[in-house]
Amino acid sequence: MDFGPHLFLALLEGSITAAVLALTAVGLSLVFGIMRVVNVAHGEFFMLGAVFAWWITSMLGAHPVLGFVLALLFAPLLVGLIAATTDYLILRRINYNPERTIVATIGVLYIIQQLTLMTFGPEARPVTAPFNKRIALPWFENGADGFTLIWPWGLGTTTYKLAVIVAAVVILLMLWLVLTRTKWGLIMRATQLNSDMATAHGIPVDKVYAMVFGLGAALAALGAVLVVPIQQAHYLMGADPLLLSFIVVIIGGLGSLLGTVVAAVFIGLSDGIISVFFSPTLAKILATLLVAFVLIFKPNGLFGKSAE
Amino acid sequence: MLELKQVGAAYDQVQVLFDVSMNVKPGEIHCLLGRNGAGKTTTLKTIMGLVTANKGTLSFNNVSLNGLSAHQIPKQKIAYVPQGRGLFTELSVAQNIEVGLMVRGKGTSTKDKVLELFPRLKERLKQRAETLSGGEQQMLAMARALCIEPDLILLDEPTEGLQPSMIQLIRDVTIKMRDEGAAILLVEQRIDAVLSIADRVSFIERGVIAETVTASSVQNNPAMLTRYLGV
User: Fold this and answer.
1) Residue A308's pLDDT is what?
2) Does the beta carbon of A198 lie under 8 angstroms from any beta carbon of chain B?
């Protein structure tokens, strides 16, 4: 395949990574932005989303579309409830102390991982995509007759992969609308800006924190449910999303949702391109190096604000 | 009526309040005076539940505040304007006011009434709170508190860093609230301004209420100010 179509294919694969990463990282950013909690267990909530999606679809044995729709609804809900319970049982009791929450969420990471291994086993579990029609994509060639449309062999994708990108965009837009246009969004933003004054205005900050922790985890789970028909569910699959989410959140600016989405698109696309042309490991190395540079030259990230 | 009996409070292991006993009656401006670090702000935060009282009792209109969660206290019609204003800086003026209205589910009529007191805010409803001048920010902090339609208002240094015209406005609104029957607990550094509007004064020393007297008796006995405030 020529360079042009090859690059286009890489960008397409990168867009899927970017879409799922944006959902996962926005969850992490939301939790940090509002609660100031660095959730090291975030990748495990992603993994749980994928494993629950497999569990729901295989338990029901229903039509792939019905099974997948139910997984899309219930897996994030279950993960959100588990996260909210984690907040209630652990984070609230250590008073959201920044150092203690890091250690506590590392503990949660191992508990979730090992419980998943014990319950669902070590095998990678496939989930059937609800639809997966292969579509060929066109390319342009500048020949003697000017620009002509060609159909290079191997340049194609599936309807499901395109749907993942569209779904992520729709979910992120809905989240933005909730945060900026609804009473719930106002409550969350007020809590983020000044939790003491939010309390002094009748906002039950503890409940808001539990809800935000649940929402952050549910977003990661939603990303996982969307991607699991492409990459299978496995109890160790949380590490990469966690690392990439941290990279994205640091580059975008801790707590900045816009920055997180922009950085997710950048990292996702570059990951796609570097993985296709070189290797996935090199993509991770370069992304981590980029984080180092951002931390040196712009410690608050591209869209972050300096701490008050 | 707000009633505090032998209230104590601490930040972690550091005890700041030891014995705060005082009351604030409806239709009264009660001023809390003391040196820096005496426990004035901590007293207000303890009433709001933001610092937990580790001894003593707090009640308002015969409802015990000790057993309430901090977020339930404003629902008892208690409003708090903290030192430094405590605005939601990245939210607009309208959104800050909306947060105030949410406390007791108040609507447009309350909002209109509050904005009548501070017409300048009406022109800046869409502006972010952080872009307002210091005086306008104080107006917004007061307006947000008044959206609760409070029976008790806790004001922590409301005129700090403001120009004279703004100080006059804040003072006028405070008196108006008092005249409408609200109880006001005021912490203020500008003693002369305070004494001219206060009904009673409590002096706090190292976390203990040393004395509560009428404002006029303080004006007649300046030695009291020297004793408790060193002025």
Assistant:
1) 47
2) yes
Q: In sequence order, which residues have a C-beta less than 8 Å from that of residue A74 and are 6 or more positions away?
A: A52, A56
Strands B29-33 and B200-205: parallel
When divided into structural domains, chain A yields a total of 1
Question: pTM (2 decimals)?
Answer: 0.91
- Whichever domain contains A56, its CATH number is 1.10.3470
- Predicted ipTM of the assembly: 0.93
Is residue A103 domain-resident? yes
To the nearest whole angstrom, how far is the Cα of B134 from the nearest Cα of chain A? 18
> Residues of B at the A interface (Cβ-Cβ below 8 Å)?
48-50, 69-75, 80, 82, 86-91, 95, 98-100, 102-104, 144, 148
Which residues constitute the domain of residue A189?
3-297
CA distances from B95 to A133, A153, B87 (A): 47, 55, 11
Q: What is the pLDDT of residues A108-147, one digit of tens each?
A: 999 999 999 999 999 999 999 999 899 988 888 887 778 8
Q: Do A200 and B88 touch (CB under 8 A)?
A: no
Asked if A92 reaches chain B (Cβ–Cβ under 8 Å), the answer is no
pLDDT of residue A89: 97
Return d(Cα A247, Cα A222) in angstroms, integer.
20
Q: How far is B81 from chain A (nearest CA, A)?
A: 9
pLDDT tens readout for residues A96-113: 999 999 999 999 999 999
Helix (H), strand (E) at residue A194: none
Among B49, B95, B103, beta carbon nearest to A186: B95
Do the domain assignments include residue A94?
yes
Q: Please report, for residues A244, A270, A290, A303, the alpha-carbon distance to residue A298 in angstroms, rounded to integers and kept in the order given.
A: 19, 20, 11, 10
| DSSP string over A20-40 | HHHHHHHHHHHHHHHH----T
Give the pLDDT band of residue A1 (cuts 50, 70, 90).
low
Q: Which residues of B touch A196 (CB under 8 A)?
A: 50, 82, 86
Which of A68-77, A115-124, B188-197, B199-208 has the weakest average pLDDT?
Answer: B188-197
Lowest mean pLDDT among A240-249, B48-57, B99-108, B197-206: B99-108
Does residue A93 form part of some domain?
A: yes
**Do A194 and B74 count as a contact with CB atoms less than 8 A apart?**
no
**Chain A residues closer than 8 Å to B82 by CB:** 196-197, 200
- Cβ distance of B75 and A202 shorter than 8 Å: yes
User: In angstroms, rounded to a whole number, what is the distance separating the alpha carbons of residues B227 and A188?
Assistant: 47
Residue A72 lies in a domain: yes
- C-alpha distance from B84 to closest chain A C-alpha (Å): 11
